[in-house]
């Protein structure tokens, strides 16, 4: 390989010297140009490394300790207080719980805006809608003569009881199952809906029932009664808890859990969002949803039961079911109330 050497300029100031200087300068230009043209091989770069991290939803917990299964039989949990005479809207009895709610101008309702079909935010309008929302609006209509006099407080399943005990909400209408344990801390209306616990899995999972959940990761929202019941039915299931049911769906889609188990009404809302998941297996239990009310507010329990009676008899219950829950198939209608007085 030839090499270009750049000469040093001589100091002769004669004509001959000037010619030499010009020659030297020309050589320097050539040297510079040549240097610019020399290409050295670039160092080898390491091969690119790509990997995907599946983020775990905030607040998710794995290997949830065993919880007691919920009970409804030992205390006749679904029996409630008989409705009293219904006052005219906006004319609540003086000193009553309803009069206090009327006085502060709005019904404060605890619910979840991530429970598709029961309570969710419409992405187009921003309005909170669903079956539970229709129940809340019926209570507001009976108190204020205005179904929109409602303030919604978003609660996780685990926060419902505390919100009622602390009186940060007037009622909870959030797929809340009536159980003997919960009745120690809060009061309930008569049931307004009956759901059944089932299993949600991907279509290629091979899971067909509770027996197939041995050693599998099963998701449920923290505070749900479905955790204790599933642990009773399948002690070898590895329970994973999240803050919301939507988080369970995300973990199922990302293969971080193998199944989700809770009420079929909630699972149907998750399945509607993803065609690759399905409800499998027989019903595992019956879940009776009631309106949660602070303990000791018997007048409010009777009032809400009166509202629910009107909701059933007027056909509003069936219209709400047809609008939001028809994906679950035909219904035998609303549950009939049982009163203990």
Automatic annotation (TrEMBL):
UniProt-listed InterPro entries: Bact_solute-bind_prot3, SBP_3_CS, Solute-binding_3/MltF_N
User: Cell membrane among the record's keywords?
Assistant: no
PROSITE patterns hit by this protein = SBP_BACTERIAL_3
Disordered: annotated span: 56-76
The record's section on SUPFAM superfamilies has: Periplasmic binding protein-like II
Q: Name one GO cellular component term.
A: outer membrane-bounded periplasmic space
Signal peptide, first to last residue = 1-35
- One BP term from GO: amino acid transport
Task: Provide the Solute-binding protein family 3/N-terminal domain boundaries.
Answer: 106-328
User: Keywords assigned by UniProt?
Assistant: Signal, Transport
Against Gene3D superfamilies, the record matches this protein to: Periplasmic binding protein-like II
The record's similarity note reads:
Belongs to the bacterial solute-binding protein 3 family.
**Name of protein:** Putative ABC transporter substrate-binding protein
